[in-house]
Amino acid sequence: MKQTKSLAKLALLAGLATLAQTAHAQAVPTATRQLQLSAFGGATGTYTNFYGGKNGGLTAGADLTFLSVPKVRPSFELRGTYPVDGGHVDSQMNFLLGPKVERQFGRFHPYVDFFIGRGSISYLNGGFPYNGVLYLRTSSTVYSPGLGVDFDLGTHWAVKADFQYQHWNTPAYSIHPKATTFGVVYRFTFNPRHHRSKP
């Protein structure tokens, strides 16, 4: 729990630093995109951290960017993961949302993020017995710090590699699933690029 709180604080500090840098950059000449929406989907492998469980799933989501400046792009993301193959121990499904901060290096777009949401665990093999109760399914708040990189294939298309370290609660104890996603990204552009000149 302490580790999760520390990660949350780091993500918050990173977000504040990025917002400050964004505000400063607005004072200098730059080319901007005022609004950008991107959608992504991919295959996800999850180590559930519950008695060695593993899931194979699909993850889909979208990012909304209100303002971007060269090389720095804060955005808001929502995503969901559905377990197509729940394995033999437990099956985890979640829906998450939160801030993401990206920096561009040529075609590479590395980023960090921090999501909060809800998840559900379905216990296989007849359920999970604990303190005289047999649990077939439970739900939990999910905290998910992560990082990843997108690689541009063109103006609109990119490929993605993403890793999330999660914190869940079960009736017995906390677990920390690790999810890795490989997928594709499509970017929608609503405004043409425009330039601001010096005052």
Description:
12% of the residues lie in helices and 60% in strands. By secondary structure, it is mostly beta strands. An eight-stranded antiparallel β-barrel has the order 2-3-4-5-6-9-10-13. A two-stranded antiparallel ribbon has the order 1-14. The protein has a two-stranded antiparallel sheet with strand order 7-8. Strand 5 and strand 6 form a beta hairpin. Residues 1-32 and 194-199 have low confidence and may be disordered.
How do the helices and strands line up, and which of them pair or pack?
Blueprint: H1 2-25, E1 31-32, E2 36-47, E3 54-65, E4 72-85, E5 90-103, E6 108-123, E7 128-130, E8 133-135, E9 137-152, E10 157-165, E11 168-169, E12 174-175, E13 178-189, E14 194-195
Antiparallel strand pairs: 1-14, 2-3, 2-13, 3-4, 4-5, 5-6, 6-9, 7-8, 9-10, 10-13, 11-12
Name the strands of the widest sheet in spatial order.
Answer: 2-3-4-5-6-9-10-13
Reading the helices and strands in chain order gives: HEEEEEEEEEEEEEE
Binned strand content? over 45%
Which shape, going by the Cα principal axes? elongated
What characteristics describe this protein?
199 residues, elongated, disordered C terminus, 12% helix, two-stranded antiparallel sheet, disordered N terminus, mainly beta, 8-stranded antiparallel β-barrel, single chain
